[in-house]
Amino acid sequence: MNRRSLVLSALAAGFAQVTAAGPQPQEMAEWSRFFTEADAQGSIVVLDARDNSETTHVYNVSRSARRYSPASTFKIPHSLFALDAGLLRDEFQLIQWDGVKRPVEAWNVDQNLRSAMRNSTVWVYERFAKELGDARESAYMRKIGYGNAVATGDKPFWVEGDLAISSFEQIAFLQRLYRNQLPFQVEHQRLVKDVMVNEAGPDWILRAKTGWTGKIGWWVGWVEWPSGPVFFALNMDTPNRLADLAKRQSITRNVLRSIKALPTSA
After folding, report:
1. Residue 141 to residue 148: CA distance in whole angstroms
2. In terms of DSSP H, where are the helices of 183-264?
3. What is the model's pTM?
4. CA-based torsion, 81, 74, 12, 25: positive or negative
5. Is 72 among the catalytic positions?
6. Three-state secondary structure call for residue 98
7. Which residue stretches, if any, does this entry annotate as coiled coil (predicted)?
8. List of domains in the chain
């Protein structure tokens, strides 16, 4: 299959994920201002499931259907795989540091699932990948329909390799996790959701994970309200590398505030 065919296949898969879930997405051209104000190029999908209805809002539909490396957003399903395989018992189990100094100081200590998710500790998930093996990783991904479900290419495969997922597919995965509908023990799904908490208010909880390949940035997750969840998946270029990373959250927060899915203070 040539490159054009692969791209078309990925686009079709992305559209299939969202259209199978409900009505056609609504293009939100007005959200371009949030990207323009941040001097950023990207896309965002927001599925608003409050008040017993579902509406999908999208800025940049074609990009939202295109697959990209998930980077550290893959830590969400990867944590489920590790729990299911018995590599982890719970969020308190100590994961011993190997003594190798790495560029992020928070990585250079023993970890548990909560700290590994919070600090995006790469070596923890590289260890999980080594213990699981590529074949088992791929089998898990096929089981949950995660992107192209491959563990091939350079390592780590979720950053440097061939694994890729679209924003629409991210939303579909997050919905199943929110509803405990993935083929894993419910307590494991609840545990992973617990370690995804970023922020909370009196009547809302924000659960999310960032990702960055060096060229592409992600922020995916959802906001829980008494009236229901609002799912989001932002994907953007990061030509200025570290200087662009804060834009992932600032753009997303502005979008969510514009539809009252986050309070103005958040």
Report:
1. 8
2. 186-195, 245-258
3. 0.92
4. positive
5. yes
6. coil
7. none
8. 3-258 (3.40.710.10)
